Each structure stands twice: as structure tokens, then as C-alpha cells.
Amino acid sequence: MPASPSTLDRRRFLALTGGGVLTFTAALAGFSAAPVRANPVFRENPFTLGVASGDPLPDGVVLWTRLAPDPLAADGSGGMGDRTVPVQWQIARDPRFRDVEREGTVRATPELAHSVHAEVGGLEPGRDYWYRFRAGRELSPVGHTRTAPAAGARPEQLRFAYASCQNYADGYFTAHRHLAEEDVDLVVHLGDYIYEGANVGSIGRAHLPAVECFSLSDYRIRYGQYKSDPDLQAAHAAAPWVVVLDDHEIDNNWADDVDGGGVGGEVFRARRIAALKAYYEHMPLRRASMPVGPDMQLYRRLRYGTLADFNVVDTRQYRDDQACGDGRQIDCADRLDPARTMLGDTQEAWLLDGLSGSRATWKVMANQIFMMQADHEAGPVQAFGMDTWDGYAAARTRLLDGVRERGVDNFVVITGDAHRSVAADLKANFDDPGSATVGTEFLATSLSAGGDGADQDALGGVWLAENPHMKFHNVQRGYATCTLTPDAWRTDYRVVPYVRRPDAPVTTRASVHVQAGVPGIAQVSS
């Protein structure tokens, strides 16, 4: 008798997630039945994926690595087998480790792909540290990190970078090498760290595995490929990162419990479990972000003294499905439905409460998809993309009204996803250029997704003509750096002329200025 559809779905569910739910939950809780390999000997370097640090606090930081002597092993194991391995870590005040501040040992287990997430405390606020790992006789590369300032500190300056959308098959990660040389306090990655599709491209960087990712081993191999890139490793080793996912870490345009096609079901749930597990395994995240089944706590707040608060939001796990069948739509009434949500009720309240209670000069919202209105059609007809905040227009109005009503000043949104750069005023009513300006949004381009890019394109011309709140537009690849003081904010759009071949130079395409206490863009210089 043939298996029923439900039986087939269950079999595929278990295959995608790499085992039963109880085993998976136990692994995430930190338990391992694997024997311990106390004195491992490696035939190949186990630190092929580099090192990273993340989520800096005034007194601590997360240190990350993953043991993977064969990061592209077909079973997703990284070539590590089924034994638990003790990994030592050190963090020091100097790059030669003459003055070691803290050290310890973490067990790297096969259940978590032999990844290491060492949450280090007891550090001094606002200072530089260097860190490294040891497994057996093997030493990792040295990474550099920096703790956040003390809670009541009044920093004179904060400099951070942010990036998104790094498609391995579309282009080289040269921009990451330049980012590593920027000497920033923090890097914010806004999503699309990997792309899930079976993209071959035409530059010799075809995706591995050579299929769209569905299973845990698929996603582990894909992260192994991306994190083997030396330029990406350099950017991770240079500064602490704050990360949040968008859609391509799982599936294009997914929304809560449905896939990009709006279907969902048990197979997508299994895919989401596998993808979130692999994401955690490869990111410098705290245990608070360890996924539980298909759910992962990613929205969180990081403070930089009295200068800036970073409110990292999650625009995927709690949203309603895209309106009107997704895509670009004209006259989609559902996007105006006040019952629709982008953040979910709990996260939206958390965000507004945090913004209104902040004592920092700059209130930053680290956001995945652009918030500004973007009319895509020339003339009186308006067309909007349903995956962005335009597809959740009532939720956007509710959020911006909440910012205004609470008297939140110096509200700045940083955004990725769109593969183009835009600096725009956030308006109480985008259809009325004379309405109140609530804040500023800085959308930064992709790091490599979309290929070489250009200074301008046809859509950019339409956007600037139809959306007067947009003050700058560019379609080159790169990232953005932001310099904050108590008086001003400057965003520098750092771009490379090409990504389809390596070693591109980097330049500043434009600098956009905001004055503290004066909502909106004050000046664009290029």
C-alpha cells in the first residue's frame, strides 16, 4: 500500500531537519550524546571558516567559530564526524596575547555543527580586545572586537557600518575587504547573508550545493561556502557584528508560516527549522537567539552609552502574508488594512516602548525592507511592492504615528534588501510633501547581489521623480558607514565599480547629513 501524503510529509520533515523533534530540541538545549574527543588531531586546518564576534555589551561579547576542516563535506558535517571536541578561547588586551583578560573552554558538538558561541563577560566597556581559539594543537586566526561604552557614558563619536545582500554567485565580496579596513565600532548586517537558490552565475562562483537549499545539510554547506570567502572572513575578524536575517536565509519573500509562494505547511516548517538552525550555527549570536523549532528570537536592543540605541527588528517571523498575491501592485486595497501587521503586536509595542523610553540622542531602527513609500509608476497611477512596508501601509502609519505621538526625536532607520541606495525623509503622509517629517531612512545597496550595478537606472529615475521625500539614489554595490556625534549624523555611501571580478576599489559616492533635533535630511554632498 503506498504511503499517504501525511506520511511522506513526515518523512521529508525528518530528513530536512536532520532528525526527530526531541533530538533537535535536546541539541539546541546544549546536550550531546556524542563521545568527547579530548585531544583531537586534525589532518586539515579546522578553522577554515574564520572567527567572528557579535552583540557587544559594555562588559562582554559573543565569540564565534566553527570547526570545519572540510566545510563543503556532502553531509554538512564540515568533515568533523560525530564526536564532541573541547575548544579553548582566549580574549586579550593586545594582539599578541601577552595580557590575556579572560579564557575558557566550550564544547563543540556535532548537534550544532561543531560551532562555538562563547559568551564572554567581565570585560571593560568601550575598549579593544583580541581573541582566538584553540582545538587540539590548532590555533585559529586572531579576531578583533570592541565592547560597547558603559551605560551612562557620553561618547563623542560612534562609527558603524551596515551591509546586506551578499550573493556569492553574483559577485566577489571585495566590498567586505574594504569594510574590514574602515575601523568601525560595529558592523550591522541586515539580512540575506546567504542566497538559498541554485544560482550558477557566470563568474566561476556557482552555489554549492548545486541545488536550492531545503535540508539542514544543504544550508550548512551553503554557509560553509560563503564563510570560506577570505574577504567576508576579514570583515568578521575586524569588528563585532550585529546580525538579523531577512528572506533568502530561508526562502524568497517568506512570511511567518508561509513560504514565498504563500503556501506553507509541514514541509516549509521543516525547511524553516533547518534554515534557522544553520543560521544560528554560523552567526555570532547569544544563546537567547538559539532557535526553538521554527521560532528564533532576533529582535533585540543594543545601547551605545547616551549616543545611540540600536533597535534590531525582525520583519519576517511575525508579518502577515504579502497582500494581493505579492509582487508590484496597483490599487491593492488590502495593503491599507489596519489589521495587517509587519512586526506583530508584541514586537511593535516593544519597539515603540523602547524608542519612547530611550535616553540616547539617536534612536536607530535596524530594519530589513525599506520603510519609505516608493511609487514605482510614472504619472498619476501608483504602484507599490507588496513585500516592503508599502504592502503594510497601515502598519507603517501606525508605527510612524506612534513615533510622533511619543515625541521621539532623532529617529533613523537603516535598511537593506533593495539592491540600491536611497536616502529619504520619513513622512507622516507620504502623499503630502508638506506633511511632518518623522525621521530619516538610509537604504544601503547590496554587497554583491544583482551584479555590477550602475550609478543610476530607469527605476531610480522614476523613484526620484515620483517620491519627493527621496533625496539621493544610486544602484552601485557596496555598503554604508555612519558617523554619529551628539550634534550630527553622517552616512557615507561606499561603493565599488564592479563585483563580477575581484579587487575593485572603493569610493564614497555621497555623504548624507542629518542634524540632531531637526528631523529629515539636511544636506547631500557628492
UniProtKB/TrEMBL annotation:
InterPro entries, per database record: Metallo-depent_PP-like (IPR029052), PhoD-like_MPP (IPR018946), PhoD-like_sf (IPR038607), PhoD_N (IPR032093), Phospholipid_Metab_Enz (IPR052900), TAT_signal (IPR006311)
A Pfam family per the record: PhoD
Coiled-coil segments: none
Ranges of residues in domain Phospholipase D N-terminal: 49-147
UniProt domain PhoD-like phosphatase metallophosphatase: residue ranges: 160-493
Superkingdom of the organism of origin: Bacteria
Name assigned to this protein: Alkaline phosphatase
